[in-house]
């Protein structure tokens, strides 16, 4: 027999997926804006972020309503706690894409440094895959796939370091490009932080469905 809380939890999952879709769209738009030099796309990023903020409040309210009226325990309580944390991470991802839009707009106003853009594009692809993958894991309760998401963060960190190092080398030889180089570094750092939030979601999936806390080097084996 299906419990009332089961329907509410399924609705929460759908809300989180919708919110995640907005994050993916925002990341795609801001990356396309930089690569295609289409500044009009930055306005779309800001519009999407408003929707993410609205989703953030809505999910919080639904979670609080379930906690107050259903008194969930054990597995249900872990799931709701995880949703609250995932909700915050998705909201922060929306902020990250807006940060990228600010740096991207500055970058497009300067002479471009093409060499690092392929790495920025790759970072965006990895981060987007991490966001989608971590949320798919949450909806399916797929702990094993969540562990794979955690491993992807290393590649994102390596690319961020490469962008930083390459930009520093370029700026030393081309002092006129310092501002553009710094813009690229900020874009890469925000992409890396976005990936960190996706990693948090993967960790929350493991916690929600196993009870294991794998943050700060905790074992998930």
Structural class: mainly alpha
**Separation, N- and C-terminal Cα atoms:** 34 Å
Helix content: over 70%
Order of helices and strands: HHHHHH
Whole-number radius of gyration? 19 Å
Q: Tell me the major beta sheet.
A: none
Number of strands: 0
Overall geometric form: elongated
Q: Which spans have pLDDT < 50 for at least 5 consecutive residues?
A: none
Nearest-integer average pLDDT: 92
Q: Tally the helices.
A: 6
Portion of residues in beta strands equals under 5%
The oligomeric status of these chains comes to: single chain
If you had to describe this structure to a student in words, what would you say it looks like?
There is one protein chain. This protein is mainly α and 221 residues long. The chain is built from 6 helices and no strands. The chain has helices at residues 4-36, 40-70, 74-108, 117-140, 143-173, 178-210. Helix 3 (74-108) packs antiparallel against helix 6 (178-210) and helix 4 packs antiparallel against helix 5 (143-173). The longest helix is centred in the middle third of the chain and has 35 residues, at 74-108. It is elongated and about 65 Å long. The two termini are 34 Å apart. The model has no long low-confidence stretch (mean pLDDT 92).
């Amino acid at each position: 027999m299906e419990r009332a809380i089961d329907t509410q939890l399924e609705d929460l999952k759908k809300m989180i997926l919708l919110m995640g879709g907005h994050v993916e769209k925002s990341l795609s738009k801001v990356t396309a804006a930089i690569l295609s030099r289409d500044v009009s796309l930055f306005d779309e990023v800001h519009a999407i972020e408003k929707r993410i903020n609205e989703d953030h409040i809505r999910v919080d309210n639904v979670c609080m309503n379930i906690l107050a009226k259903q008194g969930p325990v054990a597995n249900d309580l872990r799931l709701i706690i995880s949703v609250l944390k995932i909700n915050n991470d998705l909201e922060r991802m929306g902020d990250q894409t807006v940060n990228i839009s600010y740096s991207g707009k500055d970058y497009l106003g300067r002479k471009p440094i093409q060499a690092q853009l392929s790495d920025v594009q790759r970072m965006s692809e990895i981060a987007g895959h991490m966001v989608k993958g971590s949320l798919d894991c949450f909806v399916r309760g797929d702990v094993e796939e969540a562990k794979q998401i955690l491993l992807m963060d290393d590649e994102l960190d390596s690319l961020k370091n490469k962008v930083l190092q390459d930009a520093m080398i370029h700026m030393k030889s081309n002092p006129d490009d310092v501002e553009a180089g710094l813009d690229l570094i900020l874009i890469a750092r925000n992409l890396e932080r976005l990936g960190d939030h996706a990693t948090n979601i993967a960790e929350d999936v493991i916690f929600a469905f196993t009870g294991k806390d794998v943050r700060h080097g905790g074992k998930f084996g």
